[in-house]
Design goal:
Strand content: 15-25%
Number of strands: 14
Largest sheet: 10 strands, antiparallel
Helix content: 40-55%
Oligomer: single chain
Length: 506
């Protein structure tokens, strides 16, 4: 299971990073007309995005060299880098991802498509991608299903009552006449029932980036055009961008090649030359608004973003808006932007963790308000472990996990007994509540803290009994909490993990 999980985590990260770390395509790809014909079975009027990856052209050493270079340029420490990469060290990631992609290639898989449709948004109110892997005569569909589902040609090929996808709960695979599909259950059910829908100009969009290792396409139809027209917000001067984008984008095609030969190509086809110019003018109008928003939310991103946008400045040729930046300048700007973005993302996750910790304290106060005061005291006892708050429905189990924690809530968690759920939360929670507190507003008293192992190792977030949260250097936090409780951080965490088990056994 650990190997499968490593392979799938690395595969997922690889998919997310393909846009920055792909070698140029060298083999023969499915021609644009054949690619469009294949996808006709799987697209529908609400299809928003079509992506395509040539599996055999992913250069794993180049991929991870680029990841390492970007992370080193980001000035993050080793712990922070590991956290942002899901807690997996670079070498195991490289080996696992390489093994997974090599296994797919060895099975004869040459390409894979990723599709996103609005039709799959509404059941769960969240985007639901699905993956289409075309089959050819020499490919064993069952072995490919097993690789997609479990990362192992001898593993399970689809979800069952006791078998879940190692990283994507609710996802499974199915074999169709010409492809194996990985996606959510409701997506596969929809695909079985639909007859398909040809996206207009899809072959033309594929032709614009033919030969590129990664191809990302948008070919709006009636449903998606209506979304663009109605949902894109007005600009400060009152301009409605929806109609401009509608006319200016008959289709969009982006091709990506990076290490060892970095390159990007973007083509946007408009209704006519005027529509293409209007779209270019809109982009020029939006850019300073974007920079001002970034300056307000993440000042460190302004410089790298401006450099990147300068490389992405479009030109207009006939009906097309075109972007094809200088390869080296684009790579440098993109790498700098990625490094700063990693820092911004890390801080955003820290902020989310502080919100979790503050929420746990607030839940403990509310819980206390329903308790009787202890004998001889006027104030009421606060909850001393998150498991009891979970059973009181103050939050879901996901809430007690740090955004960077290397653990996930089990898929069948809600079917467990109360005792088992309480034990799991107390053991795996990223936060510890201090036992023995009563409800008051003492701002000097620590009420809870992040476990050091889920932070950057230099600071932990601490919540005080007045609901104030701040990051505290780890040595200062240790001294503060040990002086208050007489116990170390680790002893308090162990006590919390044990408490649910002891009370359940009683």
């Amino acid at each position: 299971m650990r190997l499968a999980r490593s392979i799938w985590m690395a595969g997922t990260i690889t998919a997310l990073l393909l846009t920055t770390c792909i070698t140029p395509a060298k083999g023969e790809a499915r021609d644009p007309d054949a690619a469009a014909a294949l996808l006709e079975r799987y697209t529908d009027p609400s299809t928003m995005l079509v992506g395509r990856v040539i599996v055999g052209q992913v250069d794993m050493p180049a991929l991870f060299d680029e990841i390492r270079r970007t992370l080193e340029a980001s000035e993050l420490n080793e712990r922070e880098r590991a956290l942002l990469l899901g807690g997996l060290p670079t070498e195991p990631m490289r080996e696992a991802a390489a093994a997974w992609l090599e296994a797919l290639s060895n099975e004869g898989v040459e390409e894979a498509y990723v599709l996103l449709s609005l039709a799959d948004f509404f059941p769960n109110l969240e985007p639901a991608l699905f993956v289409v892997v075309p089959m050819v005569d020499e490919v064993d569909a069952t072995r490919v299903q097993r690789l997609l589902f479990s990362g192992d040609v001898d593993g399970p090929e689809a979800a069952e009552d006791e078998v879940r996808h190692p990283l994507l709960p609710g996802w499974t695979t199915a074999a169709f006449d010409d492809a194996v599909v990985l996606g959510m259950n409701h997506t596969l059910a929809r695909l079985r029932d639909q007859t398909g829908h040809a996206l207009p100009d899809l072959a033309e969009a594929f032709s614009a980036v033919d030969g590129w290792a990664v191809q990302l396409l948008m070919v709006p139809t009636g449903d998606t055009r209506r979304v663009m027209r109605e949902l894109l917000p007005a600009l400060p001067d009152g301009t409605r961008p929806g109609p401009i984008v509608d006319r200016g984008m008959q289709w969009l095609a982006m091709g990506l090649n990076l290490p060892p030969e970095p390159a990007l190509r973007l083509r946007v086809q408009g209704e006519d030359a005027e529509a293409a110019r209007d779209l270019a003018d809109l982009i020029a109008q939006v850019q300073p608004l974007l920079e001002r928003e970034v300056e307000r939310e993440a000042p460190a991103m302004v410089g790298p973003l401006s450099a990147l946008l300068e490389q992405l400045e479009p030109t207009v040729e006939g009906r097309q808006l075109r972007v094809e930046p200088d390869a080296e300048a684009f790579r440098e700007a993109a790498t700098t932007s990625a490094g700063v973005f990693l820092q911004v993302r890390l801080e955003a996750m820290r902020m989310q963790s502080r919100t979790h910790l503050r929420g746990l304290h607030q839940a403990s106060v509310v819980w206390a308000q329903g308790q009787q005061p202890r004998e001889g005291e006027q104030r009421r006892p606060m909850a001393s472990e998150p498991g009891i708050l979970l059973l009181g429905n103050y939050f879901t189990a996901e809430y007690v996990l740090h955004p960077l924690a290397d653990v996930r809530v089990p898929a069948d968690f809600n079917q467990w007994s109360d005792e088992r759920r309480r034990q799991w939360v107390n053991e795996y929670a990223s936060y510890v509540l201090i036992p023995g507190l009563v409800e008051d507003l003492d701002g000097t008293r620590v009420a809870g803290f992040e476990k050091p192992e889920v932070t950057d190792g230099r600071h932990i977030a601490v919540v005080f009994n007045d609901n104030r949260v701040r990051d505290v250097p780890i040595d200062e936090a240790r001294a503060l909490i040990e002086e208050q409780t007489g116990m170390t951080l680790e002893e308090l965490a162990e006590q919390q993990a044990q408490r649910g088990q002891d009370e359940a056994s009683e």
